[in-house]
Amino acid sequence: xxxxxxxxxxxxxxxxxxxxxxxxxxxxxxxxxxxxxxxxxxxxxxxxxxxxxxxxxxxxxxxxxxxxxxxxxxxxxxxxxxxxxxxxxxxxxxxxxxxxxxxxxxxxxxxxxxxxxxxxxxxxxxxxxxxxxxxxxxxxxxxxxxxxxxxxxxxxxxxxxxxxxxxxxxxxxxxxxxxxxxxxxxxxxxxxxxxxxxxxxxxxxxxxxxxxxxxxxxxxxxxxxxxxxxxxxxxxxxxxxxx
Length: 243
Description:
The protein is α/β, with parallel strands linked by helices and 243 residues long. It has 7 helices and 15 strands. It has helices at residues 16-27, 41-49, 68-74, 92-98, 110-122, 185-191, 233-241, and strands at residues 7-12, 32-38, 56-60, 81-86, 102-105, 143-148, 151-156, 160-166, 169-174, 178-181, 197-201, 204-207, 213-215, 218-221, 224-227.
């Protein structure tokens, strides 16, 4: 098989949580290599004018000083492929005029993100030599026995989306069902051997690898949403950045 280098990618967004979300999605996509994550249009413009280059620009639309649409018009040639990212849907005409590859609406989900990357790859001359974007990196199985009722059952923690406090018990929420575990959330948090399970609220522990989007301090995991408590936000951001 012909080896093709991954697309070099830059993220530009003035919201730190949104940047972390996009960094996480890029990290889950083997066809992408992140080279910079910048907090605004001025920083991005300086990067490009100083000779910086990339294949793909993930660009927030609404930013102070220089908007994403303004930045796209100021970029020196060769202009990278651009995918706009915004909270609003009413920039479609402007996006079309700029000939951007795709237009993502926040909160960005992994499946939709992969569709956009697929369009970028398809537009490359060597696209035929590239495999399609992977939905996620392969992970090793993570199974543990936990006490549920009168039985100890084996739970595959790859399937656990989050864990919720329920009085003196905890509820493991998987992709298909819920299990009531006879253990407090604090005790469970202390005994879990997985570093990617992080407490984000006094009532919730989440599987960082199953987060699909972050928006306004709410985490989307499958069909569920989990809040990030104010006192946990800094720690959550640190863990998300380390993935």
